Amino acid sequence: MTTVELTRFHVVPEQVERLLAARPAMLADFRTDRSGFLDAHLVRLPGDQWLDIVRWRTSEDFATSRAKGANLPGIRAFFAAIDHVVSAEEGTAVEDEE
């Protein structure tokens, strides 16, 4: 089963364009640098909050990615647009996409 990372964060309105502009480079960095990265879906929520749903092959892949932090420019630019993290959770998908 796939590991799912759920990160809810707050972005001030003035930083939304910066966040969205940085997203493609962040995803490209994840694809090249993060073993086990499967895909990610960004969801806009009410109250200037966002939810990033990231799927990893294993929990170990997710832990390794987390330890790397914002080690590449695309990832760093995306994280820089975030005001603060509201919550971060890890779960297991019971229905994997085929």
UniProtKB/TrEMBL annotation:
What Pfam families is this protein classified in? ABM
Domain (ABM) ranges: 6-66
Database matches in InterPro entries? ABM_dom, Dimeric_a/b-barrel
Q: What is this protein called?
A: ABM domain-containing protein
Q: What is the lineage of its organism?
A: Bacteria, Bacillati, Actinomycetota, Actinomycetes, Streptosporangiales
